[in-house]
Design brief:
Layout: H1 2-12, H2 20-26, H3 32-57, H4 64-92, H5 101-142, H6 152-196
Helix pairs in contact: 3-4, 4-5, 5-6
């Protein structure tokens, strides 16, 4: 950590053109923010593509039950696209590292945590809707005339399954975020604690 402080002090005495903020913003970083940005960008393209497909195909879907399901899917993916767009805006904003090092690291850590929180919200929005709509569309594909979910027992099983799958999916998303980014966040926390002492 002492070496990091020394480097930071040296940068503070250099000209504006070689400041760490300018260097960090200009280089094609393979750091944590860049890794997150690439993953979120792919998810955003995916969500927008599915939103477009659902919107275009909606007038051609029959019967009415399938149209309703496609509308629900469309709204869910639209909300997911908006949340992912917000994530991209946060990630593209960059971090002002011309501040003191402690403030810069805290801002950097908070930005990563905020994006991961958005990721979990996107999952909570899309998991149950995609699961339930996929289930119903699958039943419609097998037999369009079949009576779907005509007993309360069927509905109870369906709701219980969706709740379990949603909770399991959300837990899995949080576990994957922790596995992918936990060591970086832990390192940032350690660096911040050292700078505070």
């Amino acid at each position: 950590m002492d070496e990091l402080k020394e480097v930071w002090k040296n940068w503070e005495f250099k000209e504006e053109s070689t400041s760490p903020a300018k260097t960090i913003n200009e280089q094609d970083s393979n750091g944590l923010i860049e890794k997150l940005r690439r993953k979120v960008q792919w998810k955003f393209y995916y969500a927008v593509a599915f939103t477009a497909v659902f919107t275009i195909s909606l007038p051609f879907i029959f019967p009415l039950a399938s149209q309703i399901l496609f509308t629900i899917l469309n709204v869910a993916y639209l909300i997911g696209s908006i949340l992912l767009f917000q994530e991209l805006k946060i990630l593209k904003a960059g971090v002002d590292m011309s501040q003191n090092m402690l403030t810069g690291l805290i801002t950097y850590k908070n930005r990563i945590r905020r994006v991961l929180h958005y990721e979990e919200l996107v999952g909570l929005c899309l998991y149950p809707v995609s699961g339930s709509a996929g289930f119903f569309l699958g039943m419609q594909a097998v037999d369009r005339e079949a009576e779907i979910m005509n007993s309360s027992r069927d509905w109870a099983w369906f709701i219980a399954t969706m709740v379990v799958l949603t909770l399991a999916g959300h837990w899995l998303a949080r576990w994957m975020n922790r596995k992918a980014f936990g060591k970086y966040l832990d390192q940032l926390d350690r660096n911040i604690k050292e700078l505070m002492n």
